[in-house]
Design goal:
Strands 4, 5, 6, 7, 8, 9, 10, 11 and 12 form a 9-stranded mixed beta sheet that branches. Strands 1-3-2 form a 3-stranded antiparallel beta sheet. It is built from 13 helices and 12 strands. It starts with 33 loop residues before the first strand and ends with a strand. The protein is 38% helix and 16% strand. The structure holds S-adenosylmethionine (SAM) and 2-[3,4-bis(oxidanyl)phenyl]-7,8-bis(oxidanyl)chromen-4-one (SQH). S-adenosylmethionine binds next to helix 8. One of its GO terms (molecular function) is protein dimerization activity. Keywords: Methyltransferase, S-adenosyl-L-methionine, Transferase. One of its GO terms (biological process) is methylation. This is Probable O-methyltransferase 3.
Length: 340
């Protein structure tokens, strides 16, 4: 994928054509469409491979990664999709895409056929069958992959929190303190702290993710295990957590979150940011298809699943909550506010 390739960073003049405005962050750069010759030169592709490269671009145009003028097909521009892959941008998801295409993740898919047929491998994911460890247990053996994974999740947080802050920041209004459960490197909590300076923000995650961080930009870091307990706060945030766990595990995590927040009369709430399969705001066919592929990723790399509303309702009520409200965001995710 050109935009995601480290060698494509010289491709800067493809950034942000003025005609394309669907980037989540509006751009001030003046990007121009590029001809095939300009592209092959800047990507160091020899003339002998120019036509091979043109065929790759043709397929990427068909996929919506680039656009081209219909008549001459002589120049290529970025689309909203490829704008999300530009390096050095706080809403770039290049690092997340690198996690998906890394052989550590993608090779697990090849285990799926034998895994499905085996009655023994019900407690391990295809990922663990291949690597001997689940994804969060690889820090010692594959530190490079764990680093990539944590950076990938942070890049997802950069994009999704940008959308959340633009479309439903009121979800966080009046929240005095918040614990970001499984909050990774703190990207989400830092975005919230910037937007709500009065909010006391805590990131809660495993030792190997947080290491010796104590406090950064007013955000506190606490090490622990959400299957044991969750630090107290007025609200608990679960972003891209529950999709990675079985219904039983989700109920356990949600119960620990419920114990961490004030009761019904005192205004506690849980804020879940995850996919609700079928709850999409636009371009339904593509969005649902991508949600279903994300569900397959959860099948190979995690013990979880992407849930539809009825599946979310079941785990929310099983954990003892009384009420919830779903707000779909642009893209694939929804915000689910959950009340005791
Ligand atoms: C898919 S990532 C999501 C990270 C972050 N919430 C985000 O959306 O960018 C899942 C996170 O859960 C953390 N995690 C996994 N198991 C955990 C546990 N038992 N207790 C606390 N955190 C855990 C992982 O280390 C990782 O940071
Ligand atoms: O490989 C994974 C990928 C993701 C993931 C996160 C945010 C996204 O936007 C997304 O599209 C995928 O989440 C995981 C997870 O939550 C696990 O527990 C285990 C593995 C994964």
């Amino acid at each position: 994928m050109l935009g995601a390739s480290p060698s494509a960073t010289s491709n800067q003049c493809l950034s942000k054509p003025p005609s394309i405005s669907a980037s989540p962050r509006s751009s001030t750069s003046t990007a121009k469409p590029m001809s095939l010759a300009q592209l092959t030169t800047s990507l160091s592709i020899p003339d002998s491979k120019s036509d091979h490269f043109r065929r790759l671009m043709r397929a990427l145009v068909h996929q919506g990664i680039f656009s081209t003028d219909q008549e001459t097909q002589s120049s290529y521009s970025l689309t909203p999709t490829s704008q999300l892959m530009l390096p050095g941008n706080s809403t770039s998801i290049t690092q997340l895409l690198r996690v998906f295409i890394d052989p550590t993740t993608s090779d697990s898919a090849y285990v799926l056929p034998s895994w499905l047929k085996s009655s023994e491998e019900t407690t391990k994911t295809p990922f663990a069958v291949l690597h001997g460890h689940e994804i969060f247990e690889l820090a010692d053996e594959k530190p490079e992959f764990t680093k990539l994974y944590n950076e990938g999740m942070a890049s997802d947080a950069g994009l999704v929190m940008d959308v959340v802050m633009r479309s439903c920041r009121d979800v966080f209004d009046g929240v005095e303190s918040l614990v970001d459960v499984g909050g990774g490197n703190g990207t989400t909590a830092m975005t919230l702290k910037k937007a709500f300076p009065e909010m006391k923000c805590t990131v809660f995650d495993l030792q190997h993710v947080i290491q010796d961080k104590m406090e950064i930009d007013g955000v506190r870091f606490v090490t622990g295990d959400f299957f044991q307990s969750v630090p107290p706060a007025s609200a608990a945030l679960l972003k891209s957590i529950l999709h990675g766990w079985s219904d039983e595990d989700c109920v356990k995590i949600l119960k620990h979150c419920k114990a961490a927040i004030p009761n019904k009369d005192n205004g506690g709430k849980i804020i879940i940011i995850d996919m609700v399969v079928g709850a999409v705001t636009d371009n339904e066919v593509n969005a649902i298809e991508t949600q279903l592929f994300s569900d397959l990723l959860m099948l190979i790399a995690a013990k979880g699943k992407e849930r539809n509303e009825s599946e979310w309702r079941d785990i929310i009520f099983a954990a003892g909550f009384n009420n919830y409200k779903i707000t779909p965001l642009i893209g694939l995710r929804s915000v689910i506010e959950v009340y005791p």
